[in-house]
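[job 4417] fold queue: 2 targets
>>> target A
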Amino acid sequence: MTGSPLNVQLLLTGNEIMSGDTVDSNSAMIAQRLGELAIGVYRKVTVGDDVPLLKEELAAMTATADLVIVNGGLGPTIDDLTAEILAAVAGVPLEEHPEAVAHLQRWCEKRNLHLNAANRKQAMLPAGAAIVDNPIGSAVGFEMTVGTCRVICTPGVPGELRSMLDGIVADLSARLQRPMERNILRLQTFGLGESTAQQMITDNMPDWPQEVELGFRAGAPQMEIKLTVNNAAAAAAQRRCREQLEQLFAGHIIGEGNITLAQRVLQLLRERGATLTTAESCTGGLIASLLTAVPGSSEGFHAGFVTYSNAIKQSVLGVREDTLAQHGAVSEEVVREMALGALDRASADYAIAVSGIAGPDGGSPEKPVGTVWLAWGDRDHIRTRGLCWPVERTLFQTMIAAAGLDMIRRILLGIEEEPRYFGQRRMR
């Protein structure tokens, strides 16, 4: 396995993937990491916990591929079959691997657990297999060569797979005779759709350089724009494209890499020595959850208030009873008072407040499902905006939480231009 391009195939295992109980995100993670080496995935197959089918598929893959990555089936239960399948295809017995046993013992000792027979099953590997380190999980990865094909077996737990891929990708890079100089610049955006972004690029950047591959990855709430080049000579063109995109999309670009809105907001707060508080109704604490998921968030995030009922809006945030009675909970006046109350009680510099109708019920002709009021700012200047985002409940909460964070980001960066989604999602 020294040439390039390589024939790489993925074998995903498990009934839970076939049934839809578990969504396969691991194959995307593997493909993205291989893409850093300009290695594409030639074929991907998902098979349930069926021994004959798994043997048949793995045998076919090893007969045609340079590299097969098997994902899943390394655990301690009866339906974890990967070691057994690889041993059968390679024509070797299973045997207890001393290094795998030592790994399991260390893993159990750290957690004050007893190494039982079920866990010890994870040390039964095909004879001659080499260990692939799993820094966080109980099951080691392992690899061996079948004919001319290298087979690497990895765990199905996404966090464990992620922790192993650095070593796997580094090893693959070292083995390639002609490593590629592939560079992928990822720009994270919010408030732009794929079709809108593509049309704006087509209209405003007609001379897009051929050596810079343009790609999009839509998600909720962010969309990623990828600029890929395959050699160092194209780096200057990549930089020029990035500069043009920054001018074209202005405040919609959050940052590079995998940065999230919450990470960017906390980064900006930290740089300014400022703090933030949240007052949430329809998002149910999601904004606070996104912020506190970031390590070190306590530097910039003071407190979050989830005030779902009108009575709690009054008692916790000091929203006036007559304001609620006159305007209703989903109103400009109420979110303004929510924001000011949160600022006062948390002694923070900035606040985000949201109140809306997430649905599927609760709407009216005047305030249909998807209606939301946002407030954001500091004590001297609370800004407000009413929007209508009529989507499924969970997506509504995701997008509204992101919009709140986005508006604080824009204040901290001094961006005065309104985002495109204000016009697209304006109230009827």
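>>> target B
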Amino acid sequence: MDGRIVILNGPNLNWLGKRDVTLYGTLSMEQVMLDIQRCYPDVYFTYYQSNHEGDLIDQLQLPLEPEREPVAGIVLNAGGYSHTSVALRDAVALSPVPVVEVHITDISQRETFRRVSLLTDVCAHSIIGHGTNGYLEAVQWLLEHKNS
């Protein structure tokens, strides 16, 4: 795969493994990243989390900058911004690399305000409700579709 895969998490996901474990599970993102790297030892990953919308947009725009290290794909869990951010949606739509949306929980079974993701239509693929395994599935999808 040419370039790295970026795992990008939005607000409150820095509390993964500690916050609402009945919904989000007990694994920390550090543990999830170790599992991903163990499953795909030959793939270069970077991880970034921010509680700030603009920071996430900046990360999504990195593949647009030719002088930067190449990015092959992005796994994005935008957290609550999935349901509210037109700006984040626009950044995903601009992405020259595939973006796979991940939601740990099944948003269609959550509160009414969480049931619609503004990102789904502009993402290459979405994985919803598979727990933290969704991150692994997103990486697998990117690797299987790298030449599509």
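[job 4417] complete. Note on B: Helices lie at 21-24, 29-39, 53-61, 86-94, 133-144.
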